[in-house]
Amino acid sequence: MSEETGEETSAALVLEQFGDLPRLVERPVPRAEPGRTVVRMLAAQVGHLDLNIVDGRFGILPELPVVPGTNGSGVVLASDTHPVGSTVRVNGKGVGLRRDGCWARHAVVPDAAVTAVPQGTDPALACGFFSPAGTAWAAVHSVGAVLPGERVLVTGAAGAVGALAVQVAARTGAEVIGVVGRPAKLEHVPPVAKAVLAADLSAEAVGGPVDVLVDTVGGPVLRESLPLVRPRGRAVLVGYTAGREFTVDLADFLLADVAVLPVNLMTRGREVAADAERLLAELSAGELTLPIERHSPDGLAEAVARLRSGAALGKVVLDLS
Ligand SMILES: NC(=O)c1ccc[n+]([C@@H]2O[C@H](COP(=O)([O-])OP(=O)(O)OC[C@H]3O[C@@H](n4cnc5c(N)ncnc54)[C@H](OP(=O)(O)O)[C@@H]3O)[C@@H](O)[C@H]2O)c1
């Protein structure tokens, strides 16, 4: 409650300048508007996309000040379209990108950015599953078209997208090799894959050429992994945590004869939504695993540092409950 105005207030992380970290402030509880849903947020993802936006290093940027957070989950407090009290996830329609996002205890978002999730879903899973599940599905199936019996190399295999890509590819009947950058992460590669350290990457270490590479890391890891793909194989590019640039020697590129295929969840979100929802049910049932780290809003700096350095294990989530 604000002492000056008597208005009810609520905590939000507000970004005032690109390159700084958002500040935790108390602001009036946002009010309901036509076409918008008020959500009491319970959890919000801190993802690489959010950090790119906070840093001002993304193709679409919001006007400042803004509440970042492209993915969240919570309970509907007021809406013309969504039942009050229902458990929902929030993403898309510019949330956290062109307008205030989910790093707040209360958010007012377009009705179309709100999707029901099964009652009882862990809020951290509800806010964190869609991006890795949708991206892993798109990488393995829609873009990589992995077939049973193929050999698939996944980099960042203990990360959120990587760990799910390993599991989705293995279920397809592929033989999966998971690459990690740090020895401590070897044991966090899902056991359906053979785990290999990036420093040891070689044709021998991965047991010969692979049919498909799913790269979630970029930079030097992509450079070292690409030559391991067989001619006429596919390299599916998902992320760039270790480096945004990718240069090719055209002569080598043509000789290698590997199709380099980008994944863009923003354009494929609708296409993979049903598959991602199915993966959520399996994650909730413990049939698939997605590692999650939970942080409080006043621990944002540590959460961001762990994500930026690559030390984080899986999804990094703010607990707003
Ligand atoms: N294309 C799309 O539509 C789409 C959708 C979702 C996510 N993404 C992107 O996919 C990538 C992976 O996302 P995620 O959610 O799986 O992230 P994550 O859980 O943080 O995994 C990323 C992995 O990258 C590795 N890494 C290597 N160098 C790093 C560095 N300097 N900083 C941070 N990580 C480093 C780390 O693994 P090791 O320690 O094993 O090297 C880390 O586990 C991100 O770039 C994200 O933006 C793209």
Written overview of the protein:
The chain has 321 residues and is α/β, with parallel strands linked by helices. It has two domains: 9-129 and 290-319, Medium-chain alcohol dehydrogenases, catalytic domain (Quinone Oxidoreductase, Chain A, domain 1); 131-266, NAD(P)-binding Rossmann-like Domain (Rossmann fold). Helix content is 26%, strand content 27%. It has helices at residues 48-54, 123-128, 130-143, 160-171, 219-225, 250-256, 265-284, 300-309, and strands at residues 9-14, 23-28, 36-46, 71-78, 87-91, 106-110, 114-116, 151-155, 175-180, 194-197, 210-215, 229-237, 259-262, 292-295, 315-319. Strands 3, 4, 5, 6, 7, 14 and 15 form a seven-stranded mixed sheet that branches. A six-stranded parallel sheet has the order 10-9-8-11-12-13, with helices on both faces. β12 (229-237), α6 and β13 (259-262) form a beta-alpha-beta unit. The longest helix has 20 residues, at 265-284. The model has no long low-confidence stretch (mean pLDDT 95). NADP nicotinamide-adenine-dinucleotide phosphate binds at residues 47-49, 131-132, 135, 156, 158-162, 180-182, 185, 216-217, 238-242, 263-265, 307-310, 312, 314.
